[in-house]
Amino acid sequence: MAERKHREAVKAPEAVKVPLFSAARERVGEIEVAGAVFGRTGDKSILHEAVKMQMANRRSGTASTKTRGFISGGGKKPWRQKGTGRARAGSIRSPIWRHGGTIFGPQPRDYSYKMPKQAWRRALCLALSDRAANGKLVVTQSLELPEPKTKAAKAMLEALGLKHALIVLGEGEETFFRAARNLAAHKVLLVAGLNVYDVLNYDEVLMSEPVARAIEARLKGEAPKGEAR
Fold first, then answer.
1. Shared-domain flag, residues 35 and 125
2. Average pLDDT of 156-180?
3. CA atoms within 13 A on the CB side of 136
4. Is 36 in the same domain as 12?
5. Euclidean distance between CA atoms 189 and 77, whole angstroms
6. Tens digit of pLDDT for each residue in 177-217?
């Protein structure tokens, strides 16, 4: 039923216009990007499914309890079966005894699972479209620094008016990556690591125009052969 709702989403426009800013947050123009990626609408319950999957995949699954078979001792019958007046018992490690084993306790397991690729791509497009529609997507001409200094990256982000941003970087922006990765209020990701949870978890999304084009190509299915999707 939910999948049918996703299929019945309103068709996205062919292209949407996104403001283009300088490093000082001055509007220098606008760019046209694919509406299927940055202008999508539809049932947003799929965002919940995507975030739930990501959170499940991050679980370590190491919770472990000891059943009676894992507890030392208890090999000898505490007393004979009959004649003592006590309840019959076969082991001091029985789950109903103090210091006994645990019944049906958690054991190490893998919680991870995967969504269909098309559903995941749709959720990521919806998340990016939400940020674009609400003015939370900041696209700049470039994200370049003369040297990888955290102080310089912080000053640039402050000039852009960003306080809690997801910064998406691509090829040729390694200097900014090294400069900004230590900033606690922000998170830096490469294009290949872009995901629904982080887009929704941060107030703004920052990227350069080349990165916006790379995301556009990747989510429209035009990524080069071998690139992760």
1. yes
2. 94
3. 18
4. yes
5. 60
6. 999 999 999 999 999 999 999 999 999 999 999 999 999 99
